[in-house]
Design goal:
This is YD repeat-containing protein. It comes from Pontibacter lucknowensis. With about 270 residues, this protein is mainly β. It has one domain: Porin (Beta Barrel), CATH 2.40.160.150. Helix content is about 0%, strand content about 40%. The protein is built from no helices and 16 strands. The protein has a 16-stranded antiparallel sheet, with no helix packed on it.
């Protein structure tokens, strides 16, 4: 997650055609009498029903949004996350007793979960030779994730520390992420905070699962509805949505508030 290089205002701002061939048949012109018309068939003509896409409902599963693609099993459990813009990033999800217990990354690393009851409290990512790369610790208040602590071991065996505190509104929608970080593994060296704010939520279902390039938390929703803005302190982004008849979002337009002359980026939700 966040390493020592994280800056106060550095955050993510945040994607075959077929053709048909028509064969034309021609006959030579012959000077013959026309044949008597054939009797009409009394049988029932064979018809092929048109292929239809199931309607989007409140229970539809998100297949793709932005660069992320989601794949599910017959029990509607997430079993794979991939990215359209980076083929070497992503993972498959292994389950035991209906709980995710391990992620297998495309780069050869793997992650192992630790549970307390039904909640994931720790997740550790290992290299193929079992060296620890990341250690994630999770704290909850009821069903809400309220704290995420990350130790990163990429360049320092003792680890670099970063902490995210999550703040929610009365509807359980995320309103703030408060981020602090340390060049060491000591809380005494913490820098920051940096704050990312969200707001102006609609009252529609947000279909995006909490699955990022590092881990997947199956029972966590940071955004139960769809935010109208994301503000990391610079380049505030504004979101507007169009919806299916079911109320599920079908498109999101993203506009940088300080650059209204720029055309908005439009992203579609696939179910």
């Amino acid at each position: 997650m966040k390493s020592s290089s994280v800056k106060h205002h550095l955050f993510l701002l945040l994607a075959g055609f077929g053709f048909s061939l028509l064969t034309l048949t021609s006959c030579e012109h012959e000077n013959v009498l026309p044949a008597a018309p054939a009797k009409p068939s009394t049988g029932t003509p064979t018809t092929t029903p048109p292929t239809t896409t199931p309607p989007v409902t409140a229970n539809s599963l998100l297949q793709q949004f932005e660069a992320q693609r989601y794949k599910y099993d017959a029990q509607d459990r997430l079993i794979e996350l991939s990215f359209t813009n980076q083929g070497d990033i992503g993972y498959t999800v292994a389950y035991e007793n209906d709980k995710p217990v391990r992620l297998n990354y495309r780069n050869g690393n793997h992650l192992v979960y630790t549970y307390s009851g039904e909640k994931v409290v720790e997740a550790v990512q290992y290299t193929p030779d079992n060296k620890v790369v990341f250690r994630f610790l999770f704290e909850y208040s009821g069903d809400k994730l309220v704290k995420e602590t990350t130790l990163t071991y990429l360049s320092n065996e003792k680890g670099h520390l970063s902490i995210k505190d999550y703040v929610y509104d009365a509807n359980s929608n995320l309103t703030e992420i408060v981020i602090t970080w340390s060049p060491s593994n000591s809380p005494d060296d913490m820098r920051g905070p940096g704050v990312v704010k969200f707001g102006n939520y609609d009252n529609k279902i947000n279909p995006v699962p909490y699955a990022n390039m590092f881990f997947y938390l199956p029972d966590v929703k940071l955004h139960r509805n769809n935010p109208g803005f994301r503000d990391p302190g610079i380049n505030k982004t504004l979101y507007t949505y169009t919806y299916h008849a079911s109320g599920m979002p079908v498109k999101r337009s993203t506009q940088i508030q300080d650059y209204p002359e720029l055309p908005p980026a439009v992203e579609e939700y696939s179910y």
